[in-house]
Design goal:
Length: 646
């Protein structure tokens, strides 16, 4: 404390040292410390500390029995306390005055600080506004320099900047793709017009549109705008609305309007002492129409006059397929007749866009989708659209992860579509060569000669052409074919027994069917239809007791029961009937293939379908199903069914 001149700390240390000596019984040393503390208090004119020191000294004298010194020091302590009280009284009024002066000075300084802070904030705001306006001016002049360059001299960074401006226009987002907006940025030109200048008037040719970029000089409350003028009910010209910085002026020109129906004037900046000029990115109508009619890709371009587009190995994916299909749909392309999209990794999402294209485009004749991955779901989408497309002649689906599900979908589509004459499904898990010629990348596309209304021939009966089933009354016999009938019946009978055994083995291996049977047996309610019979009845909404081949496959697939092409053909051959001609209009040629009378199939597999079979013959009257083609019931096959009721 002595070294650093801290007299208060020194006095406090002396008191603690004296008390320690008192505890040790060394009153002489304690008195020496108290006297030193008293000297410090006297030098500082601190009467309170003096009174405390005198008290401590008198206490030590008392402990030593020196009563005279005790009374002397006690009296000095009383005098010191009185002086301390007088000092407090004298200093109270002075302290109040000092405090008031201090408060007044503090308020004055606070006001001065507030004013200084306000001035600093104002200066910072003005400086920030100046920096912002300088940055806006620099950015605007950079855009102007880019637009003044020739289109071929603009580099990628220039086009990226112009594209970012075009991307902010909602109208262009609807009418163009990102690549087309980049092309528009390449073709855009520069214009500038002074305030109060008319951009166009009523009746002018609608040949261009503008995007407001800004104005010079840059103002804090005005960045460029255009007033669109119109005429009110009294015939006076007035401002209808204002187009601000970053917005599109003259949209009607891009919509194809031949003439202007209103007028546009560069807005007044509102300051009499400043004359501003507005700067514009200008899009010519002819450039816009040519751009939106052209598809731009890094691997190819599709122009509006192209009749054939080869876009294979372009790494399109689903997004690229969407873009090219949307372009052809949006541009109402009526020129393109051949589209090759091989090796583009197109999946189900891309197939949806291809299906949309087929629905809306009626000029495309050749479509190549081979070596993609559209799968069965994509084929289903395309088949649905082909039912509404009367022009497509050739379709390539080679190596697209297709299964037997696609086979049935394509068979049904081919039967109902009258224009498709060539189909390529090689390198898939299906065989389709017996229904339609397979084409390659040649220009010749052979016509289909087979009558698609008749059932497909069975593989074991390759030498025999199956005859159509007829109604009784049309002919004495329900099967025609001359001497081959007996041989056909024998072969069909052998084949159906094998197919039914394979079908029931597949049912036995189905966990889903086993669970359904387990629940059926545990049910406490009156036993209803067995699972397979119930599923077919649910699928037969019209209660016709007949389902087409695709619907039968879907029911079996729900139970995870696999049925291949040969099995399906055999079931159609035995249990299938051609639908009555009265069901279709006389002016249509889209007659579907035979439908399967499913109660006969269920009777063999599950049993308990005699009532449905009797109902079928009663309702259908003249329909004839050859009973001698059904297999003879044997153990495990027949009326008792695969799972006899317990």
């Amino acid at each position: 404390a002595k070294v650093y001149g801290d007299r208060a700390a020194e006095g406090h240390a002396l008191v603690r040292t004296a008390l320690l000596h008192e505890q040790l019984g060394d009153h002489a040393q304690a008195l020496e410390c108290h006297h030193r503390r008293l000297e410090i208090a006297i030098e500082d004119e601190n009467y309170k500390d003096q009174a405390d020191a005198y008290n401590n000294i008198s206490h030590n004298y008392l402990m030593q029995g020196q009563m005279a010194n005790f009374r002397l020091m006690a009296e000095k302590a009383r005098k010191a306390r009185r002086e301390a009280r007088r000092g407090i009284e004298r200093g109270s009024s002075a302290a109040v005055e000092k405090a008031e002066a201090y408060l007044l000075a503090g308020e004055t300084k606070a006001k001065q600080r507030e004013e200084e802070e306000r001035i600093q904030k104002e200066q910072a705001r003005e400086s920030q506004e100046a920096d912002v306006m300088d940055a806006e001016h620099e950015s605007l002049m950079g855009l102007v320099e880019i637009l003044k360059r020739r289109p071929e001299d603009r580099d990628d960074s220039d086009l990226n900047l112009l594209s970012s401006i075009l991307d902010e226009i909602p109208y262009l987002h609807v009418r163009t793709t990102a690549v087309q907006r980049r092309e528009l940025g390449k073709r855009a030109i520069y214009e500038k017009h002074q305030e109060a200048f008319p951009l166009y008037e009523v009746g002018d040719s609608a040949n261009k549109a503008w995007i407001v970029l800004g104005c010079t000089p840059v103002l804090p409350d005005y960045s460029g705008s255009v007033d669109i003028m119109g005429v009110d009910a009294e015939g006076k010209e007035e401002i209808m609305f204002v187009i601000h910085n970053g917005e599109l002026v003259g949209q009607d020109a891009l919509d194809g309007a031949p003439l202007r129906l209103d007028s546009a004037i560069v807005s007044d900046d509102g300051q009499d002492d400043v004359i501003t000029e507005n700067h514009y990115l200008t899009i010519l109508r002819e450039d816009f129409e040519e751009t939106i009619a052209t598809f731009f890709h890094h691997s190819f371009q599709c122009f509006p006059y192209d009749e054939s587009l080869k876009a294979q190995w372009a790494d399109l994916g689903d997004a690229g397929a969407r873009d090219i299909c949307w372009h052809l749909i949006n541009g109402r392309n009526e020129t393109l007749t051949s589209l090759d999209l091989q090796y583009n990794n197109i999946g189900t999402d891309g197939a949806q866009w291809v299906a949309d294209l087929l629905e809306s485009n009626h000029t495309l004749r050749f479509l190549e989708l081979s070596n993609n991955c559209i799968g069965d779901t994509g084929v289903k989408l395309i088949c649905n659209s082909l039912l509404q497309n009367p022009t497509l002649q050739s379709l390539g689906l080679r190596a697209n992860l297709l299964t037997e599900v696609s086979s049935w979908l394509l068979r049904d589509t081919v039967a109902r579509n009258t224009s498709l004459t060539a189909l390529d499904v090689k390198e898939n898990d299906i065989s389709f060569a017996d229904l339609m010629p397979v084409y390659s990348s040649s220009s010749s596309h052979p016509k289909r000669t087979r009558d698609y209304r008749y059932p497909i021939s069975l593989r074991p009966l390759a030498e025999i052409v199956p005859a159509p089933r007829k109604r009784l009354g049309d002919d004495a016999a329900s099967w025609t074919g001359g001497p081959a009938v007996a041989q056909q019946k024998a072969l069909v009978s052998d084949c159906i027994e094998d197919v039914l055994r394979r079908l029931m083995n597949s049912i036995s291996a189905s966990d889903k069917y086993a669970q359904a049977m387990y629940k059926w047996n545990l049910s406490e309610e009156p036993k209803g239809m067995l699972p397979l019979k119930k599923a077919f009845a649910k699928a037969d909404v019209e209660r016709r007791l007949m389902l087409d081949r695709l619907r039968v496959m879907e029911v079996l697939k729900d139970f995870k029961i696999r049925i291949d092409r040969d099995m399906g053909d055999t079931l159609v051959q035995v249990y299938g009937l051609d639908p009555p001609k009265e069901k279709f209009a006389d002016n249509t040629s889209k007659i579907p293939g035979p439908e399967i009378v499913y109660p006969f199939l269920i009777e063999v597999v599950e049993g308990n379908c005699q009532d449905e079979i009797a109902d079928f013959f009663e309702r259908k009257g003249g329909w004839d199903l050859q009973p001698n083609l059904l297999p003879t019931p044997r153990k495990g096959v027949g009326g008792a069914g695969l799972f006899p009721v317990s």
